[in-house]
Input
Amino acid sequence: MIRVKATVKGEQDVPPFTRVFDYDEQVFFSSAAIVKEKIRQKMKINVNEALMAYCAYVAKSIRAGKKDGYIQKGASEILSADNVMIGVPETLQAITFEATLDNKVRKVTIKEPIPTSSYIMAGH
Output
């Protein structure tokens, strides 16, 4: 069983929200594989799919014994603004994961996972 509680903070005028991914391991990683396939096909993913991609990355990294700094750095390479729908980078500005794997709990925070240096919203 994999249980990941993700608390998301976005823009200041929007309250944080929490999603809980509580799945059998095979279902969890199969769901993440579907999201990866959409990205491979150049389809833009929504905020929930992006969150699933990050949850899978964090779960795999924790299980592999990676340190928080490594996880943070690698997270910025998973998705780009071109992979996601408009508004997703602003919604996922900080994600705190509380992952329960193999009966161990670990907390990891990723800040600004989707690089936005060249990302410009219309009207800004």
Summary: The chain is about 35% helix and 25% strand. Residues 47-63 form the longest helix (17 residues). Residues 2-111 form a domain with the Urease; subunit A fold (CATH 3.30.280.10).
